[in-house]
TrEMBL record:
Keywords: DNA-binding, Transcription, Transcription regulation. Residues 194-297 form the HTH araC/xylS-type domain. InterPro entries: AraC-bd_2, AraC_XylS_family_regulators, Homeodomain-like_sf, HTH_AraC, Tscrpt_reg_AraC-type_HTH. The lineage of its organism: Bacteria, Pseudomonadati, Pseudomonadota, Betaproteobacteria, Burkholderiales. The keyword Lipid biosynthesis does not apply. One of its GO terms (molecular function) is sequence-specific DNA binding. This is AraC family transcriptional regulator.
Amino acid sequence: MQFEAWNAALRHNCGHFFAVPRRGQKAIEGHFCPHDVAGFSIVDIACNIEGIDRPIEGVRRDGREYLFLLAPISGQMQMEQDGERNVLKPGELYLLDSTLPASIGFGNAFCRYIAVHIPRALLLLDAPAGPIGGSPNFADRTALLRLYRYVMTLSDMKRGGDANLLLGLTRATFSRNDASRPAHAMRTQQSRFALAVREIESFLNSDELSLPWLAQRLGISTRQLDRDFEAHGTSFIQTLRTKRLKLAAEYMDVAARSRRAIRISDLAQDSGFRDLSNFNRAFKAEFGVTPGDYLRGGCQNVLQEAAHSL
């Protein structure tokens, strides 16, 4: 397979990730084989390149947010993201966050792995509010083995699969409790803001979610939390609305991929919107189309066009 064709397939299926060839490399020993199972895109990837880069420019250009569940079959993957480095071997798993820069190295050796595209908002919803990306929680080895085997099963499927099982196993494997949170996590404005957003993502469709409720969970004043949002050029309400709209879009993407009918009214409720008219207006303001048109227009294509217009 020609390097440029492989690199184009990577960007088309995964977003703005960029393959790095070996010196003088024109062809790749490998393949790039995507298919949909249980509403998720699953890609069987093989290559002998130097690596893959995810620059900050790529993060800014992509309209979709994923946690890529990576499972090597052969070879090694040298992962680097969010200040951490890990070497991934067959039988192990890694969650790559598309909202952060990253790099994957293959050591100029052949590597084959499975990549499951898990919509970020769907996975974080109802998950414990601690860190969830990167390496798994090795305290639960049983969950890791179950998830790895299930990913291998999904990679061989042409249809079927259980989206809820995949989400549940992934949460169990990668979630960490609050004890893993660094002691200094609430000392800086940046860290407080990150934790606040993570809490919002866990409780997106909860009726309890409000600025005072969130401030109480974090152990700070409402005024302090409001200032933290302002310092990042946003507000609690704006962040909450944007996150809920992205969750709604992800629900529709999964339904479309699995060829499952979905009612807009149910979608609004599941995404945390209690008023259908408000949901329709907010969705059109965010994505330029109504929820119904978004579904009919092939979800991913609509969002990609919106991202490219930025």
